[in-house]
Structures are given as C-alpha cells and as structure tokens.
Amino acid sequence: MKEQYGHSRTQSGLPLLPYADTTPPSTPFVPSFRTRTPPIPHRRKSLLVLCAFVSVVSLGVLASFAVHSSRSIPVAPVAQAPPAQDVLDSPVNASFPYLHDDDIVALPDTAEYPPWVNGPPTQRFRDNLRNDTQYITSWLSAGWNNDVMTYMNLIYLGIITDRVPVVAMFTPSHIGGDAGVITFGEVFDVQRFRDESGTPLLEWLEVKDPESEEVDELGCWNIWEAVQYYEHFPRGSSIPDWLKLDISYTRAPDWVKQIPGYEHDKCSTFWSLARLAYPEDREPNLGNILPSPQHGVFLDPDEHMLCYDYLYYACAGHMSEYDSSYAPEWRYVGKYMHWTEEIQTIAAQYVNRVFGLPEDGPVPPYISIHVRHGDFSTWCWDAETPEDCFAPLPVIARRVREVQDEILQRKGIYIPMSRVIMTSDEKDEEWWKEVVAQGWVRMDHDALQTEQRYTRWHPVILDAAIQSAGLGFVGTDRSTFSVLSRRRVLDWNDGAVRMVLWGRKGADDH
C-alpha cells in the first residue's frame, strides 16, 4: 500500500558546468545531488486546514439556527479560542474547547507522526503499536556500511512478511564508542524512501521516546548460533541498551542456515527467516530460551514486534549477492535509500571545493575512486610480498580510462583526469603523491576538517555520498563500501563502473 504520510517530492537536477576540456554532451548528466521544492510546513498546513474546518462548522451552526429559530435552543457559552501556537501544538484528536463537542464530526488529520503508530513516541514501545499492524526489527553489529546492508536486509524481510520494519540508530563500532550514535534519518531520507518505494518504514525514535528510562522486555530469535559454530550465544549489539530493551532469545532452528553444516558460510535465507514469522513454523520451534540479562524473564519470540538478533548474513541466493542485479534487498530497498538533503548538500560542496570551484555552484560530471587498503592487508595470503597484494595506481588508472571511454561513448561526455576524486583509507603520503601525479584530486578530510566542522561520522558518510553521485566509479573488489557505491552509480546515475581485483601480483591484469 502506498504510504500517504508526509509530502510528495519533486526533483530538479543541477546544471552541467561547462569547462574547456569537456565535449558537449548529447544528453545532460544530472548528478545525484538532488534538491526539492520545499513543502508547505506541516504546522502551517495544519493551521490552514483547522481554520477552514472552523469556518465550515460555524456556517453550519448559523444555518441550523436560522432553520429552527422557532425552537428554544440553549446555547452553551463558547470558550475563547486559544492562541494559534497552542492550536498548532495540540496533539491529534485533542478536544478544542472553543468548539462544541456536538459540532465535531471528525477532526482533520494533522498528525506529525506516521500512520503505523498510535501517536507520538511513548515511554514504553508497546503502548505505541497499533493492534491492526505487525512489526519487525533487528540490531546492528558491524562496521557502518555493513550495518547499512543489515538494515536493507531487515526492511526487505519486512516486505516479504507484510510487517512494518522498525530501524534503530547507527552505532560507532568503527569510529570509536565515544563518538555517539547517529540516527537512521540523519543519514537517509526516510520520507523519500516511503514515498518512492511504497514501503512502510519506522524509526525506533518514532515508536519509543529516546529519552525514556523504561525498560521493555522483548522476546527475539537468535539466528547467530544457527549459522556459525564458534560463538554459542546470540550476536551482541549495543542497540538494545540504547533502546532500553531487555531481550530474551530463542535459538533458531538449524534449517535457517543456507548450507547446514558448512562452517565457511554464515548465510541465512530470507524465506527461511520468514517462516519463523508464521505459526506453522514458529510454534514447533519454541523453547530453548535464554533468560533476559536484566529482568531474567523467559519470553517466546514476540509475535507483534517480530525480532531477530542479526540479519547482516541474510540473503536470497548467496552471501555476495549485492554484486548481482537480481539482489532483491537492493532492488526493493537499497536503491530507494537516498541520502538526506543535508548530506547531499555537504557532499556537493566538498566536490566543488576539491575541484577549486565555487561551493554553491553547479557540480560537474566526475569519476570517483574508492581504494580500500587498511585491514584488507590481512587477506593477502596469495601475495608473495606485501607490495604484491594491492593493485598499483597505474592499474587503477587503466580502469579509470575504461570508465572515461564508456561515458564518452554512451553519453557523449568527456571527463578529464582533473575531474577524478580519490577516496581511500591509505595513510602513506608517498602513495598520495602518486595519486596527485595521476592528475586526480584527493578527498582529504583531515585537511578539510570534516570532523571538526560536522561529526566524526561525516568523513565515512560523505565519502559514500560523493562516490554515489559520480557519473563513473572505480571500486575495490570485495569491499562492501565499494559494492554499494557501485550499485548507486549504476542505478541512480546510469553510470559506468569498474571493480579492481587484488590479493596477488597481477590480480587485475586483463
């Protein structure tokens, strides 16, 4: 069902910036940095609707009085209307003392919360769940990009089980615990996702008051123990602590694992997980419950708020399917998860800044590169020497030229080497000097003081946004960060993409 809450979205592309070494394109490229026409503020709309409603009611009362003037009608004194701001702040369905109760047939829907909850966030989450709606949730326990995939998997599982997905915040497992959390809606445009995908979606902060000190008990499925054989407990996450949830876990059956008995694959399939949402397969697999850590309660998996400990390893066919065009978690979810307008605006400013262009000007077509080194060095088993593991810059440059050629051939747009942005976790300054020697520009968040200007979260989020807005992309094979950027450039921009192989000398020779 198409979700009706919120405002419709309009998009306008940024004009192509002309420069001397660009062949005029046959079709203009519109970067995925989008703007939209600002909607009428919700409170202002509420006031306009309310005023119109009061006017209609008043006319009705006068007409009734004229028709029945021969009767003696006792009229109760009408209270003075409260100030406009009080009206605006009144919750939906609140009684307005300046209207007769008998005159109110139905109040206009001025709710500032989604239709899948009872009202504003409550102290206990169950108080805000609708009796006619079912929900699904899960927790995070990886690096940021893997956590993004985890939420995509959760939302897709909600689609196939006819449940409303409830996503929590992102936790700073990869940037230092003292960095604090960032909400899903601070990164991704939730309303745009609802509008364009037609899929319902809630954030936990829309269900339960983030400031609540009430601890809710909840029964969940423990998937982690069923898909791997080294940790004999549910997957740990700090999300339940942030949400003040006390979880009692039930171990899932072994058949949720895609390849039972195979230790090198941790994949559980979406449809095997979905079976646990329905009574035919839920009831026979109850029992084997762990007590909750705070209250020591033993709870079966909840039927109203269906819950799984960890869904990163959920898949339709195989673990690396985000690389594949068929991947349903991308087709039905991921491609609709666009950055917030704030993230897009900052990313556009950063792109222009590194190109030496006015920050508030149009963004030119560009190619982005993501080179992942860092912890990947521990996967260099086939490399005889450390320097043999990663593809050298001339090899990456060959991939960039392939992208340039494809863009020129398909779109008639020539992107010079001076419009190529390198993003990487590499710390070696000599390597970065070689990057500059290629004619490329560096996205240097230390020099740009990104953490000081924004938050510790912003360097990694902005890199992803910048990569996704290019007309071309060259990524690192087996990096989930590159995998998602590749998919965004393909589906959002109809761009040209390549992935660089690595792990041994000459891995990307072709």
Automatic annotation (TrEMBL):
Record-linked InterPro entries: GDP-Fuc_O-FucTrfase
Keywords for the protein's UniProt record, in alphabetical order: Carbohydrate metabolism, Fucose metabolism, Membrane, Transferase, Transmembrane, Transmembrane helix
Source organism of this protein record: Phanerochaete sordida
UniProt-listed Pfam families: O-FucT
GO biological process: one example: fucose metabolic process
Membrane spanning stretches: 46-67
GO MF annotation list: transferase activity
Disordered, as annotated region: 1-23
CDD domains linked: O-FucT_like (cd11296)
Superkingdom of this protein's organism: Eukaryota
Stated name of the protein: O-fucosyltransferase family protein
